[in-house]
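Exam review. A common question shows you a sequence with its structure tokens and asks you to describe the fold in words. Practice with the pair below. Do the first one on your own.
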Amino acid sequence: MGEAESIVFIIDDDPLCRTSSERLVRSAGFDVQSFESARDFLNSRRPNLPSCLILDVRLPGLSGLDLQRQLTEAGVRIPIIFVTGHGDIPMSVQAIKAGAVEFLTKPFRDQVLLDAIQHAVERDQVARQQHARYADLRGRYESLNPREREVFKCVVSGMLNKQIADELGATERTVKFHRGNIMRKMHVTSLAELARMAEVLEIPIQEPTCTKGQ
């Protein structure tokens, strides 16, 4: 994965450490943006690419752990690799529990950091693909009109056309018409595909009321 496809952000208030990290990351083929403080990072315009953040724990103003918390609260899911020369076990546990990919205590080998970066960027790439797929499926589902959504829930619950017609007070012909529209709008050719989409979207299935107790 090269620099045209991904980027690594570095936040370190030590200019020597920051420059050293930049050179190492660029040598591995990644693009780099570096910052002196967490505030500078938050105020920056960052490219929308698979990425990770190399974050010093101790920073002036907003600390690394504080930045991690703010990003989580804002819904920014960038993978974080913490680096520090003053780490301790409680600090590392806190960072990892909050979702950090790695917590490295200086000194560490260059390859350890590069391996962590590769893992973090690949993880972000997968997460972005999953998010894009979910957004696409959600868009398809929202293209259904209210009646089609009712039929959709009945269909993925395993109800037959006659049961759906009885449930919704419609004719079987009308149900078949809606099913056709649903399959077309959701871009599927089988009930199994539709059921998998419903599972991904966490669409509640429709329990038949007219057949209960039978």
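Now try the second one, then compare your answer with the model answer below.
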Amino acid sequence: MILTRLSRVLAGAVLGAGLVSAGCSGGGSSPTTPSTSPSTPSNASVGGSWSGTATDSSGAGLMTWALTQAGTTFSGTLTMTDNSTGTKGSGTVSGTVSGASVSFTMAVPSGGADGSYTTCSASMSGSGTVSGASLSGSYTGTNSCTGSVSSGTVTLSKQ
């Protein structure tokens, strides 16, 4: 249950997209063909502290991510608190950024949660979008104590 909720809270994340201009050249009285520059999307910045909510098949909770970004990859820690039981858990989050899109994996190891969930572990994966200081996404996964984690959504704000 807590790991399932922990998985829910761990979910999440999403990136900002950049725009690239294409240039045209021409001249004289003869017809010209437009010249297109290759586009290079700007990847969203996800490094830093994020906090918000996560909800999945086990319930709702609060979640935080503390991330470090290097190019198109990110990694860091996550913490979550189950709204109904107050159970807390911690683990890792990692993923990739492409434009405004993010793909992520969250993991809470055995011993990462308190209370009756100390022997449980959970892993989830998902994808989402970053828009400015907001990250939202969806995820699914498994919990060693409660089974599958489904219908996960995460909504985080950069602090």
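Model answer, second protein: The CA atoms of residues 140 and 150 lie 5 Å apart. The chain is about 5% helix and 50% strand. Full marks require stating both points clearly.
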